[in-house]
Amino acid sequence: MQAGEVVAVDQPYRVRLAVAYVNGHLDQDLSIGTLAAEIGVSERHLTRLFVTELGDTPGRFVRRARTEAAAQLLASTRLPVACVATRCGFGSAETLRQAFVDRYGTSPSRFRVAYAGTGDQDSAGMGSSVKPNATS
Fold first, then answer.
1. Is the confidence at residue 21, as pLDDT, over 90?
2. Tens digits of per-residue pLDDT, 52-80?
3. Are 14 and 22 in contact (CB under 8 A)?
4. Strand, coil or helix: 104
5. Which of 81, 83, 38, 90 is nearest to 63 (CA)?
């Protein structure tokens, strides 16, 4: 190998790194710039990788990951909705509500009433009982 020669890195590996980073830092800045810097690629390349490997943009992936994490917290804890929003990286309870309605077709409060205490982790995420809206 000569100086300045670029070694191709397994692209799915970079996506896995980004996904792991997102899942471990839901309450932090997960802008495309932050994710791209974290895995050492340009913002444009990161977007290409996500679309190719996951079929979605980084922004949509982050919103879905945050919403699914919120669903799990709502179903398994008694934390106030505002606290769940903060823990999952939403700027406010209203932002969480909007994302939740877009994804699940119901508000976080109604979701909690329907699934709290069921112990059914599938229902709190992408399981059979709760279906994301077709437009998500």
1. yes
2. 999 999 999 999 999 999 999 999 999 99
3. no
4. helix
5. 90
